[in-house]
Each structure stands twice: as structure tokens, then as C-alpha cells.
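Possible race condition, two jobs.
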Amino acid sequence: MRKTGHMSVGQGVLMLLFPPKCVGCGELMPLKDGMTHVFCPFCRTKWEASRLDPQERILSWDDSVCGLVSVVGYTSGKAEGIPERLIYHLKHKDESRVFKYAAREMWPLLCDILQTRDASQENILITYPPRRRSALVKEGFDQARRLAEALSKLSGWPVETLLERTLSGRRAQKKLNAEARAENAVKAYRISRDVVELSNTTVILVDDLYTTGATLRTCADLLIETGAARVILATLGRTKHHSG
């Protein structure tokens, strides 16, 4: 695993010009806390309380898709919740310290599932479902890619763009019901033309949020059809009324 470095001079200057704020309540945070924490002590307590129960953080799947790991429960439409605010931040604000924090939260669960499935010594790649082009243009970044890159820096596992959007994948998943999400996801993704070989590889498929699972299931199936030995689904949040 790669070690995280100290704050660079450039990062220090940016922190002085733009002091870090708590993602939960918006209050200014001390500079010494800003690089390692994204919450003030009060909001951090709420974040800890939002963690899924230990037995729910890793859900079993099947032989090829060997599990889903998630850190916290998420409630759709709950704008004031701490997990909901953090995931909103990931989607709309390209702030590296927040992606690093999310990656650190997900990392222990990934280590646990790899050890449990005897996959820790296999070839491991990280990938992600690409964002819609219209959302990418609007926001200027892909939150799933940023999260995958943060996990890559933390773990040392390479991140590869193994999936791509099709021209059919223009509808936003959040506006669809479960059945329509599944249908839309099948049309929306394909394996990247540059991908040739995935045999003997465990692929960690990363996204910020698991809602119905339509996107991740579709992408996992594509990876397995292309030869991946197994796929692990990894998200920061999981919508509470869906368990797998």
C-alpha cells in the first residue's frame, strides 16, 4: 500500500487562501484538521452514527460478483443528513480532501472482503461506471473516477477506465424507477474498446452510491463477460431500503 504524503507547499497556500469547511455544517475548520478530516467534531459524531451495522457493511453476492461493500446508509431526499451532504459534495464539488476521506473510509472494508474471499494476492484493478456526458460537462469532473483514483493512490492498485458510456445512455438514473433504471443501465454501458484481457484479475468497481444496483450490476456483468475472475462492488453510501 502506498503511503500518503504530507501537504505540499501549493496545498498549504490553497488551504490558507480557502480554509477548509466542514462538509456537514459549513463551519470553518482548523487548518491542522482540514487535510485529514472533512467534518467538525459535532458532524463527525453524526457521521459515525450513520455507519451501517457491521454485518451490513459487506453483503454477499455470488461466485463472480463476490460482494458489495458500503460504509454508511443513505436516505433519498434527506438533504440535511450528514451522509447525504457528503455524497452531494462528492457529486458537485471537486475537492480532493473529500475524495481522500471517502477512500479512507472504504479502504478497510475492501481489505476485509479481499481477505475473506482469498483474493488479496490476485491481480487487482480499480474501475468505475463513467458519468453521463451531460453531467460531466455540467460539473466538470466524474465523481466515481475521482473516488477510484483516490482509492488507487491509497492502495497502490491501478485504476483503469474499463467501461464507457454508449450514445443510448443519456437518461439520468435518479429520475427513473427501479425497472426503468435496470433497462436504462443495460443500454448505457459497454466495455471500453481498449480492454483486451481481464483474466485472473479481481476488479473493484467503485461508485459513490448504491441505490437499486442497476448500474453496478450491469457493469459487473460486462466485466465478467470480458473475463474478470471476480468483481467487488464498492460504494461509500447505500440507500437504506435496498439491501442487495
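Job #2 (started ~2 s after job #1):
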Amino acid sequence: MKYKIKQLSVFLENRGGELADFTKVLSENGVSIKSIILADSSDFGLVRSIVDNPEKAKVVLEDAGFSVRFSEVFGVKIDDYVGSFDKVIEILAKNDINIFYTYSFYESTMGVFIFSVDDITKAVDALTKNEVQIVEAKQFYM
């Protein structure tokens, strides 16, 4: 499906400089970060990131000792007005789609929200029927 985006999930030790090590490996190997979110616990951090070359990123990160896995997510473009995000969430809820997590970044005056859900195909179909703009995965890749 042209809307499924490969997201990297990388476990980091919860210590100073670990995120810098992660970003340095990517930059030194010519991999561009398109979006990133870092969640932490007392023991470790979890980076979720979309990059322009996920296969290369996985190889270079694993070679540097990082634990990496792929998951599939999708992106939605949402205009910047009050209630625009709520509209998307409501459509997903009405279609019994479970949202595991979401995060966002901005592109000009439009927000791009990344979603991890239990059924990407069902989610994309429901949102498309309601005229929500879905981001094609190729937008992120080289």
C-alpha cells in the first residue's frame, strides 16, 4: 500500500549523549531524519523516526550496536485550525480503529500527523472516504 511508511523504532540507553550517538550515525551515513519522537522510561528511551532511507538506516544503526526494528505507520495532512485533529480522531473512533500512538510535525501551515493503528488499510479507507488527505510514503524516501 502506497500509504504505509516504514518507521524505525530504536531503543536507547537512558544516559546523556545516547540520542547524539544515534543522530550522528545517521548523519555520518547520509540518512536524513524526516520526523522523530523520543519517549523515555527510567531505564531506556525509545526513538520512533521516519527517515529517507529506512533500510540503510537499519543497517548502519545495527552495525553501530543499536537495537532497531521496523513498524508500519501512516501520515495524515491536517489543516491548522481548531478541531481539525479531532475530526480525524473521531473518524477513526467511529470506525472502531484503535490508535496505538500518534505524533506530528509541521510542513508550512499544515500539520502532518503520523499514526500507528491496528488496521492501516481500514483507517486509510475511512479517512479517505471523509476527504482527509493521506500522505504517500514516497514523500519521505529518497
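The chain is about 30% helix and 40% strand.
Logs attached separately.
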